[in-house]
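We keep the chain:
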Amino acid sequence: MSPRLRHCLPHFVMLLVAVVLYAAAMQIDTSQTGGGRRVGPDFWPKAVILFMGALALYEVVKRAVFGIDSSTRGLTEDLTANPAGDPTTETAGEAETIEKPRLLLAGGALILGYVGVVDLLGFFVTTAVFLFSFTWVGGFRRHGWNALIAVGGALLMVVLFMRVAYISLPLGEGPFRSLSLALMSAIGVR
């Protein structure tokens, strides 16, 4: 197998996956959309799958026509400090990688915890707690900013999902449900 073809293979597989997923998305029931006058439940999955397929096709064509340049660098290669504030050390002109397995495990635990409690606490509260905790675990420890990021980010996601994408979100139980319903009323979602 030629090197160009070998570099195209993963993207070609993703293109095939996109085709299969799009075929599956075609099976989504759209009978309740009023004859196509409203955005149906199939719109966003199809849009994301089309975007994924377009990116995969772009990579296949790019790599097939131009090959792969071994001098390609990532966007963050020139960073000399960890965003969490711990500077890297220079040895012989190359930055050492700072590995923090505890941070990785904590981030993974936060994600699993999010999935575990989102039905109980509702999307807004769970997302706000997650964003606050994730930024804190990541090393950004300015509680006022963390709270602003958490509440603002959760509110932005609620508006995007419920007002723009028309996706229903978990409301939570008990007082969390009441909070979610009040928030929905405030942003004009019925």
About this structure: The CA atoms of residues 7 and 61 lie 11 Å apart. The chain has a mean pLDDT of 82. The chain is about 60% helix and 0% strand.
